[in-house]
Design brief:
By secondary structure, the chain is of the alpha/beta class. The chain contains 10 helices and 12 strands.
Length: 312
C-alpha cells in the first residue's frame, strides 16, 4: 500500500462536450468507427450535417418514421454498423429495436429529463434543447477525449445577446462551424444548480394545459407521467391552416417552430419519406419551457381562440 498526496483524479460516468453533434461525432469517429450509419428520416439537420461534414466515407442510410413516430428499423444491424434512434420530444421511443450485432446509439437530446431507462450501448444528447445554457452535449459513459481547439464564438454571442436575433445568429454560427470541444464553465454551473424535478413538473403542467385547452388540431404525443415534454406539438389539418395560425401567433408575440424541415439528403437517399414530409407540413411546435407559467399558456390558448373566431 502506498500513501501520498498526489493521487489520480476521480471521474464520473459521463463525458461532456460543447454540443450534441460534437458528442455524436466523437462516438462515431473515435469510439464506434462504423462502416454504415442508419438515421431516421424524421430528424434534426444537425445529425445529417455532422455525417456529411465529418464522415463522408461512411455509408449513410435512413429508415422511415411513421406519423405516430413509430420507426421502421432495418430488420438486422450487422456487425460494424451503427443505428441511431431518437426519443422524440421527451417521449420514450417504444418501437421494438431490431436484432443487432452492431451498435445502437440512443439520442436523448429531447429527453434527458424524462425518467426513462436506457436501452443498450451508448447514449448521447444536447443540453441546449431543454436548458438555458450557451452550449453543452454529453455521452453517458466515461471517455477522456482530446478536445479540438475552439474559440466558441457562438457561445460568446449567446452570452452577449440582447434579443432573439442574436440568439438566432448564434444558432446559424454553430450550423456553419463547430468543433468537438468541451462544455463551457457557465453551462456546467447552470446544469449542476438546476432543479430537475421542478423543471420537469413545470413543463408537464404547461404541456397538459395546452393539451386540454387548445381547440385546434390534435396533440402529436400523449405524454406519460415519467416523461418531460420538450414542446407541445400540435397537428393541424393542412399546411395552409398551420402556417396561418403560426403567422397569427407570431403577430401576438408567440413564436412557434416546425419540427423538422426534411433534409435534402433524406430526400435524395430515402424513397419512403411520405410520413416524414406529412409531419413537416402539419406540425406546429409550441413552447412549454419551464420559464413560462400557466398564465403564459392561457395567453396562447386565448390567441388560438381569437384566430378561430377570425375564421382562420
Amino acid at each position: 500500500m502506498l500513501i501520498g498526496s498526489k493521487l489520480p483524479p476521480d471521474h464520473v460516468d459521463r463525458t461532456f462536450f460543447s454540443s450534441g453533434r460534437a458528442a455524436f461525432s466523437y462516438l462515431v469517429g473515435q469510439v464506434v468507427k462504423p462502416r454504415k450509419v442508419y438515421l431516421p428520416t424524421f430528424t434534426c439537420w444537425s445529425l445529417v450535417a455532422a455525417m456529411e461534414r465529418r464522415f463522408p466515407e461512411i455509408t449513410l442510410e435512413f429508415y422511415p418514421v411513421a406519423r405516430d413516430l413509430t420507426c421502421q428499423y432495418p430488420k438486422y444491424v450487422d456487425k460494424g454498423d451503427l443505428l441511431v434512434f431518437i426519443h422524440y420530444f421527451g417521449y420514450e421511443n417504444k418501437t421494438p429495436l431490431p436484432e443487432c450485432e452492431g451498435t445502437l446509439l440512443e439520442d436523448w437530446s429531447h429527453s434527458y429529463l424524462s425518467q426513462i431507462s436506457h436501452s443498450r450501448h451508448y447514449v448521447f444528447g444536447s443540453y441546449r434543447k431543454i436548458m438555458k445554457v450557451v452550449d453543452g452535449g454529453f455521452i453517458n459513459h466515461y471517455f477522456n477525449p482530446i478536445y479540438e481547439k475552439s474559440r466558441k464564438l457562438d457561445s460568446w454571442l449567446r452570452l452577449a445577446s440582447k434579443d432573439w436575433r442574436d440568439v438566432r445568429e448564434a444558432e446559424n454560427m454553430i450550423d456553419r462551424d463547430w468543433q468537438i470541444a468541451d462544455i463551457s464553465s457557465q453551462s456546467l454551473a447552470i446544469l449542476l444548480s438546476a432543479n430537475d424535478d421542478l423543471i420537469r413538473q413545470r413543463r408537464q403542467k404547461n404541456e397538459a394545459f395546452l393539451k386540454a385547452g387548445l381547440k385546434i388540431g390534435s396533440p402529436l404525443i400523449e405524454y406519460r407521467p415519467q416523461e418531460c415534454p420538450l414542446l407541445h406539438n400540435r397537428l393541424l389539418s393542412s399546411q395552409e391552416e398551420r402556417d396561418s395560425l403560426r403567422a397569427y401567433l407570431a403577430a401576438k408575440g408567440v413564436f412557434t417552430s416546425i419540427q423538422w424541415p426534411t433534409h435534402p439528403t433524406v430526400k435524395r437517399l430515402s424513397c419512403d419519406i411520405a410520413d416524414t414530409v406529412w409531419l413537416e407540413a402539419h406540425i406546429l411546435s409550441i413552447p412549454v419551457s419551464h420559464d413560462y407559467g400557466l398564465n403564459d399558456m392561457e395567453y396562447i390558448v386565448r390567441c388560438t381562440d381569437a384566430w378561430l373566431r377570425c375564421g382562420k
